[in-house]
Design a protein that fits this description.
Largest sheet: none
Structural class: mainly alpha
Number of domains: 1
Number of helices: 4
Order of helices and strands: HHHH
Low-confidence stretches: none
Radius of gyration: 17 Å
Strand content: under 5%
Length: 148
Amino acid sequence: MNVLQAERIESVKSGSFAALSLSLAYGIMALGNQLVLAKQFETLADLEISTAANLLFGGAVACLSGFLFGITYRYIIREDRNSHLQDGAVLAFGLVRGSAQVDVGLNFQNGFWSFGVLGVESILLFAFARFTLDLAIYRGWVKPFKSS
């Protein structure tokens, strides 16, 4: 197997770890939003998921976002252990996803707080994916990208 093929396999592994962890974290947070926040706080009632299709679509988006994050994160951090690069990757992905949700929330009369919660949730989701990837790299399950 050549070096390019090996790097691609490691990138797919990295993306898969992140996709799985982000999807799992999304499911847990969606359940928490549904059972706790939407029921306890009237201003967060918009967090209640109306159909299973909405939950599945959100999970699919989380999975795809996690996969793309995992591949990108591996290339961003390379063999460096620079916490600024790691934090920056999480914030970049989290803020892009969260900002889109807040932007949508501004179009609804009572949606600002709900979408604000989802914005913070986005950063937490990518932080969890980062933790999973860092653990996978530490354990040797995924090899970091080698700088040339």
